[in-house]
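Retro notes, structure queue

What went well: the backlog is down to a handful. What didn't: a couple of records were mislabeled last round, so from now on we paste the full input next to the output in the thread. Example, using Ca2+-binding protein, EF-hand superfamily from Actinokineospora diospyrosa:
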Amino acid sequence: MATQLQLRKYEKAFERFDVDRDGVLQRNDITAMAEIWRQTFDVSPQTEEANRINGLAEQLWSDITAATDADADGTVSKTEWNAAMEQPEFVDKVALPFALAVFDLADKDNSGQLSVEEMIAAQTRSGISEEETRRMFDALDADHDGSVQRDEYAAAIREFYLSDDPNAVGNLMVGDLD
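Corresponding output:
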């Protein structure tokens, strides 16, 4: 059973995915998110990169509904979402691959790491303030080299979903939990 901290994290993640803020996840939320990423990273609509983003969004929706839509109604309620979040296989097969795809989009120079500017560009468009993003970046940059490595980011995403440690760095992945 999820702790209060975990439930709050799941709620914040749900809010990020629920683009139209109607209280359920639907395909249009995920396609809207893909459009936000495309615009954020200045990807032209008729390009291979845009097709990749759209494909990732379709795969994400398919994976989310396969893992969460218990009543098969084509929407994902908060209750269904919360139940899936407690499953490590959901994190490993759905949440983490999508988060890493976004990481790769934000990594404009294909260096395998994000600068604070790249992270700010990615996070502020999804509703996380620049201040929150800088705190997140500083915590993720464990070796203080001025960049967040892909593996550091992946570990934090996994920790976000699965840890109930109130001091875990991964708790910062969706901004402040208050």
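Agreed that this is the format going forward. Reviewer comment attached to the example: Helices lie at 4-17, 27-40, 48-68, 78-85, 88-106, 116-124, 130-140, 150-162.
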